[in-house]
Amino acid sequence: MRIPESKIEEIRNSISIVDVISEYVQLRKRGKNFIGLCPFHSEKTPSFTVTEEKQIFHCFGCHAGGNVYKFLMDYKKISFVEAVQEIAEQQGIEINYDDEGFNEKQSEQEILYDINTEVGRYFSNNLLHDAEGEIARTYFQKRNLKVQTMRSFGLGYAHNGYENLVNFLKEKNINLEKALQLGLIGRNNDGRVYDKLAGRIIFPIFSPNGRVVAFAGRKLREDDSGGKYINSPESLIYVKGRILYGLSHAKDDIRKIDKAIIVEGYMDLISLYQAGVKNVVAVSGTALTDDQAQLLSRYTKNVVLLFDADAAGIKASMRSIEILLKRDFDVKISTLPKGEDPDSYVTKFGKESFDDIIKRAENFLEYQTEYYETQGMFDDPTKMAEAIRDLVKPIALVSDELKRNLLIRNIGRKFNLREKLIEAELDKALDFQKKQNRLQSQRIFKKEEAQQESLIPVEKKTIPPHFYNTEREIIRLLFENNEEIIGLITYNIHEEDILIDIHRNIFEKVYFEYENRGSLNPADLISLFDDEVQSYLRELTIEKYSLSNNWQDLNPSITQEMITKKYAIDLLVKYKQMHIDLQIAANVGAQENADSEERLLELMKEKHELEKQKKTIREELEKES
User: Fold this and answer.
1) How far is CA 518 from the centre of its chain?
2) Distance between CA atoms of 23 and 36, rounded to whole angstroms?
3) What is the rounded distance in angstroms from the CA atom of residue 422 to the CA atom of residue 382?
4) SS3 at position 33
5) Straight-line distance from the first to the last Cα atom of the chain, in angstroms, rounded to the nearest whole number
6) pTM of the entire predicted model
């Protein structure tokens, strides 16, 4: 089913992008725009800009941007249709769907979601109702899982054999190529397709809003080929490092308790959830990523890490601490008795005992200190100095200065060191962090410059800078949501006048939309272009720095429309005069090479006319406007 374009536009226009984004990002007003810390990359200085006027957002750091739908899609990792539905529901707008005419990108995601939903039901039915699913039911029963828990998490079983799922997909008329994309089936060298998860128990992986995005298959029989787990490959609806297993089940409890427990495995999470510990998410076989930390930060800033006490678990904890601190989390670590994991512990000792372990969680500094002690790092002065420097490094990632000072004091007391010594080490770590941030910003800036250069490769080198800059400004004014300005520009400039290809293409599209559809909304116009051009236009149209509203308060008789109109006229006069200057320069060159007096006189007359024309441009433009 497709949502009509007119309905999509109506829903988008019913809400302010500032109101939507401010629910997720702390924004403050700067001039006409709003700024805040970007939710899509780690930064200390705000480069994320939202413009109410144009109804778009753009980050000058990582270059994420778009309209209100794009923000929700990227922030919540949801599909376009879900973003439209969410705003419609919020605004009380009923959506009437078209039966035909799919938007290709929009329907592609929906098709993949639908396939996963259908296959998830198939796997679940195999586990709960099929005779062959007995082996999987026995496995889960031995792990003390109740049927209700199996249903809640959509657990399933893939029949043993290589064509069971393939045949099911064919029966349901499901596109096998799409199933291949999702990693549900594979293809042999001879072209035959086969079940990839055959004979395995199935853990569906859900998006934060509860849609099946992928599957993990755990083998049951030791003689089965392949690793312990086979996971879905990344796809249009699944990026492994952006999903936290169990978040769709846990998010309400995480918000309510204002704390999340992070565990490693699927069964760890499911057993805890069944026992009544519901504020749990799992990284499920991967190291915690910055995207996962950013996702979790929507629900809480308090985290308890509960990884295995083996070397791999300790390493994962250390890595996770830094990622979480960069996102301003309060990080604590819990440790289970040797040989236990969350699944085995809660099964043996129950929820109360597990809750006690979580209550006794140490802050990250205490945990790291104890670990270094067990490694004998404090038995030797050289190793001890190295360990203290390692303890100071993550403190540099804590943005709260008071919290930093308290942590420094703890280290000083613990090792009987003067605070000034520790502070000196902290200053070094902070300087290093600043340098890293600066280098990252420079890399981003160079990347952006390269992207802009690739869009305007040759012309910028051959066209005088004042010509290029004036042309950019004229293009920018096409996105001011001002009918008078667009009319003024399109009446006075023709596409053949524009020297730079990308500007000419933008002009043509905007002119067509204006003439044929009367479209003026900057968010609508920008969405007509591909991602590269969209980024270029957002950089161009969102003012990084703008006049304070105080300026208008002091000059109430001068409206923004008056300023913009005068600026547009000045630009058009300058641009037309520059074109005439090019013609005059060509004329002078032709005079020097004139092969007859008659030709020379003709050229001199032409030059005189051009100079006259140049002088009257402003007068004519002001008459028209």
Assistant:
1) 32
2) 12
3) 16
4) strand
5) 46
6) 0.65
